[in-house]
Amino acid sequence: MTVQPVLIDGQWQESAGTDAFQATSPATKSPLPGQFPVSPWSEVEQALQAADTAFAVVRQWPGERFARFLEAYADAIESRSDPIVASAHQETALPVEPRLKNVELPRTTGQLRQAAAAAREGSWRAATIDTQAGIRAMRGPIGPVAVFGPNNFPCAFNSIAGGDFAAAVAAGNPVIAKGHSSHPETTRLFAEAAHEAAQSTEMPPGFVQLVYRTRHEDGAKLVSHPLIGATAYTGSRQAGLVLKLAADRVGKSVYLELSSINPIVILPGALQERFDEIADEFSASCLMGTGQFCTSPGIVVLKAGEDADRFVAGVAERFGKAPAGTLLSGGVEQNLRAGIVALQRAGAEVVTGNEPADGDRFCFANTLLKVSGDQFLANPHGLQEEAFGNCSLFVIAKDNDQLVRVAEQFEGNLTGGFYTDTAGSDDALHDCIEPVVRQRVGRLLNDKMPTGVAVSPAMNHGGPFPATGHPGFTAVGIPASLTRFAMLQCYDNVRPHRLPTPLADKNPNGRMWRLIDGEWTRSDV
């Protein structure tokens, strides 16, 4: 069987690697056709050198050049939409409709076009001009960016097509994509489209490159290499922290999305007011996509009482009736089982599920666990183990004070939310707990489940550690996501003809917002 080539320095070339791998169908547990190489370090270093050469060409290019590429790439993806969707379905078992065809692929091209608009308009650079001091500053590209994509979004978070890729390119950086082993053929199809777009828009050869897999130690060498500007990683906490350690040791920027249990606090008045509605919303959210979302609600906090007991029983009934979805891979199934075992060892009791569901595919029964507030406070770290998949934990606090103390033990999360009644009986208790939760989550929700991340300029898909590596940045939300792949560039007493165009006296396009002598304006100096 032929091993697929890698995309290095503008060419599809045979890999120098001697090892290869195949993806596996989650729906059948059978190997899929196509072999993909494990790139040796020499190949990764070749990509780094090519990316550095490309960066020397593009580092002073206007945003318009990157916008043209991103828009051409979106067009090229749409011309291949059917094979991309078919491949993603085969490799992940995610449904063709509506998930892949109607939601995720349009989101992917939409992100690319939003990033293009931000690159072209330029306000993301935060150009700042102090005419009295003769000092001007802006954000500029940081250098070659490595993107490590996850397994759960084969399109919208793909290493060579997703949000991190789009943001890095819009900021003016070459990208080295490290594909995910669960969906290599989907990634190859995206790379073909990216290569076509790069050629049609005259990008330098090493601007977009792809390797499918590396050895773990070579991944650590990549993120810490002198030529790398920054790295974006989405995946497991364990692997991410290895990369962070390597990057931090040499002062390289690395932006991580690691793990999140996304706590939901449902207050008593809300349960009394709309019991069935909340039970339906929670069950649908937790089981959507078999729970394989970064923002799936993994922990729910309730105040003890008859309504709480009835809610747990109602959700357990819904979990039992709902079919168990297919998990993305054997590794996801194994890690889900391990996560549930860890929660049990920490004191959690199984309410329903926790058993195999179908031996012919990767799956596990919809699982609900519960624990008392006392137990949670006795072992908060162990009871916040992420069980990534169709599983959630209920924490039953005995009184209002314990609700607050439980919230005080939450680790950093991407999201957190509250359900309260509309009559106002929950307001006082909400106001006691909300400030505690607010400091522990990136996105705070009211009366809404967290599953799903809108591609909005106001979106924060980030949060305190261990949700991400830094609470000040987002992986979703343009133009904010671009700032991860930029450096602050200051020009002090630099002659006018040597200034980059965003800092010239004349606004380069008449649309860019600049801070001139303390006032945000689109005017010329």
Write the layout of secondary structure elements.
Blueprint: E1 6-8, E2 11-13, E3 20-21, E4 36-39, H1 41-58, H2 63-79, H3 81-92, H4 96-121, E5 128-130, E6 135-141, E7 145-148, H5 163-170, E8 175-178, H6 184-200, E9 208-211, E10 213-214, H7 216-223, E11 230-234, H8 237-249, E12 253-257, E13 264-266, H9 268-287, E14 299-303, H10 306-321, H11 330-345, E15 349-352, E16 367-372, H12 373-378, E17 391-397, H13 400-408, E18 413-419, H14 427-438, E19 441-446, E20 486-492, E21 514-516, E22 519-521
Parallel strand pairs: 4-10, 5-21, 7-8, 7-11, 8-9, 11-12, 13-14, 13-18, 14-17, 16-17, 18-19
Antiparallel strand pairs: 1-2, 3-4, 5-6, 6-20, 15-16, 21-22
Helix pairs in contact: 2-4, 2-6, 3-4, 3-6, 4-5, 7-8, 9-10, 13-14
What does this structure look like?
- It is a single chain.
- Helices cover 38% and strands 18% of the residues.
- With 525 residues, the protein is α/β, with parallel strands linked by helices.
- The protein has two domains: 32-123 and 135-258 and 473-483, Aldehyde Dehydrogenase, Chain A, domain 1; 264-446, Aldehyde Dehydrogenase, Chain A, domain 2.
- It has a seven-stranded mixed sheet, with helices on both faces.
- Helix 2 runs antiparallel to helix 4.
- The longest helix is centred in the N-terminal third of the chain and has 26 residues, at 96-121.
- It is globular and about 75 Å long.
- The mean pLDDT is 97.
Question: Number of DSSP helices?
Answer: 14
The counted number of beta strands is 22
| Name of the CATH first level of the largest domain | Alpha Beta
Calculate Rg over CA atoms.
24 Å
- Tell me, rounded to a whole number, the average pLDDT: 97
The number of domains is 2
Q: Determine the CATH topology of the largest domain.
A: Aldehyde Dehydrogenase, Chain A, domain 1
Question: Percent range for helical residues?
Answer: 25-40%
The second-level CATH architecture of the largest domain is 3-Layer(aba) Sandwich
Uncertain segments are none
Distance between the termini: 63 Å
Question: Can you list the strand order of the major beta sheet?
Answer: 15-16-17-14-13-18-19
In the CATH hierarchy, what is the superfamily of the largest domain? Aldehyde Dehydrogenase, Chain A, domain 1
Overall form: globular
Structural class designation = alpha/beta
Main beta sheet strand tally, sense and closure: 7 strands, mixed
Share of residues in strands: 15-25%
